[in-house]
Design a protein that fits this description.
The structure is a single chain. With 474 residues, the chain is mainly beta. The strands form seven sheets. It has a seven-stranded mixed β-sheet, covered by helices on one side. Strands 3, 6, 10, 11, 14 and 15 form a six-stranded mixed β-sheet that branches.
């Protein structure tokens, strides 16, 4: 929620004597009013730290720069396993406006890679450093975020003999004013202890693969993109008892307005596909407040479960042309980063439409003189799509074609890369029913007793959420 506040140094004697707060004693801030915050546990007594950062980067005068730097764990951590209990952003003074996000990965590199830095994915740093950005994520920060602190019984294990010991920081600079006078050394500081905790944590990236065939038209309101973590991936990597998700961060860019991370499971009792309570949901997404949400109750994900990340976008009045998936802030993403235990080998679990998915849209809505995907470059796709008028029928036609069309799912982990093609996202036969906050005794009807029901649309879930807020506030 976006909260507007103001104050005055002197308390009013009564309601009629309140004085003007002045222009300097007011402001606005984003807050999670319905959960998301928690009382943080104390730091261990033997806490030590190391920082992973870029080194005196002259930020290029480009609107978007992805900068990578390679380093290694401290010698002490390489020799003896340690346990991360907290990580904190360390942003160079006056650079907050340009630092959009930071991701830290652990992997194996060559010793000659240590100390190298430069533009990511350009070929200049070599394949090893670029490929490390698909490895195990150990820390993340995005604009508006704060420290992340693990629960008292959970820590992220790192280091020790024979383990991965190299680190790569991926830094996204957002520089719309094309400034060339900023030098940056930002990074993330990791705090660790020598004492192992009850559970080893992991971080998993789920959602829609970042690529240029993720298409969001202009004149679109609450336009839906879906990314899937497939049951094949969860079956391959998750233990029989499943994992416990205790925190998450959702991520889109400027035209993202909301996200819901659904959890789908096959109900064996009555043999139907059931939607369980969502893992995370934010239908009032604020690009400038990308903070980890801590859950009041751990959420179990079992092998064979499907995770669907629904991302909603509004471009009406915001964009004249299409918006594509990509790395720039003006491009879009649809991602979620789950923090869980016990740690598994799964690091990335995503999906993307296959080119054949566009077939029905091309047949029904694209003039014969427009060749939609003949040029697969980002510029070619954008130019072709911008030749369309983008009527309401075309917007809805593309949305439904891609939501219901064939896709490729893939996972990246200890077992390497694996992928599958599917005809569509799962058909949810029994949608989630949220408890009635005004009548706690009125429990939702079990799926098997309902006999199945269509899944709740995002706007219905939004109405339920507003109803819950109304009950709390009034």
């Amino acid at each position: 929620a976006r909260v507007v506040y103001s104050w005055h140094s002197n308390d009013p004697a009564d309601a009629d004597s309140a004085m003007y707060h002045t222009q300097t004693q007011r402001g606005a801030v984003s807050l999670n009013l319905l959960g998301g915050q928690r009382e943080l546990p104390p730091d261990p007594s033997d806490l030590q730290s190391f920082t992973v950062a870029v080194n005196n980067v002259n930020i290029p005068a480009d609107d978007t720069t992805y900068w990578c730097a390679a380093t290694q764990l401290p010698l002490e951590v390489q020799e003896q396993e340690r346990y991360i209990t907290r990580f904190s952003p360390r942003i160079t003074d006056n650079d907050f406006e340009l630092v959009h996000h930071m991701l830290i990965f652990i992997c194996d590199l060559d010793e000659t890679d240590v100390g190298r830095q430069g533009i990511c994915f350009s070929g200049g740093l070599g394949d090893r450093i670029d490929e490390c950005t698909s490895s195990q994520l150990i820390g993340a920060w995005a604009v508006g975020g704060e420290d992340f602190v693990y629960p008292e019984n959970v820590a992220f294990p790192i280091g020790g003999p024979g383990s991965q010991r190299h680190l790569v920081i991926e830094m996204h600079y957002d520089n719309p004013d094309l400034r060339n006078d900023i030098v940056d050394s930002s990074g993330i500081e990791f705090f660790y202890t020598s004492g192992r905790r009850e559970h080893d944590a992991g971080i998993m990236n789920v959602g829609h693969f970042v690529q240029n065939i993720m298409v969001i038209p202009p004149n679109a309101a609450n336009y839906t993109i879906i990314g899937q973590c497939s049951p094949e991936c969860t079956s391959e990597y998750l233990p029989n008892e499943g994992i416990k998700v205790f925190a998450n961060i959702l991520h889109t860019h400027l035209v993202g307005t909301g996200l819901t991370l659904q959890r789908i499971r096959q109900n064996q009792q009555c043999d139907m596909t059931e939607e369980l309570r969502p893992i995370d949901k934010n239908l009032q997404y604020d690009f400038d407040y990308q903070q980890f949400t801590y859950f009041s109750e751990e959420i179990t994900v079992l092998p064979g479960d499907t995770l669907l990340l629904n991302c909603f976008y509004t471009t009406t009045g915001e964009r004249d042309g299409v918006t594509l998936g990509g790395l720039a802030t003006t491009d879009e993403m649809c991602l979620s980063f789950l923090v869980y235990y016990p740690r598994t080998g799964l690091t990335v679990c995503q999906s993307t439409p296959i080119l054949e998915a566009f077939g029905p849209f091309v047949t029904n809505f694209v003039p014969e003189n427009v060749s939609l995907l003949s040029d697969g470059s980002t510029g070619g796709i954008r130019n072709a799509l911008n030749q369309l008028e983008w009527t309401n029928d075309q917007v809805q036609g593309l949305e439904q074609t891609l939501v219901n069309g064939p896709l490729a799912t893939f996972c990246v982990g200890d077992n390497g890369f694996s992928s599958q093609e599917m005809n569509s996202h799962p058909d949810i036969q029994c949608g989630y029913q949220a408890p009635d906050p005004c009548n706690p005794s009125n429990t939702p009807v079990d799926c098997c007793d309902r006999g199945g029901a269509p899944t709740l649309a995002a706007n219905v879930l939004f109405v339920v959420t507003l109803f819950a807020v109304a009950c709390v506030l009034f």
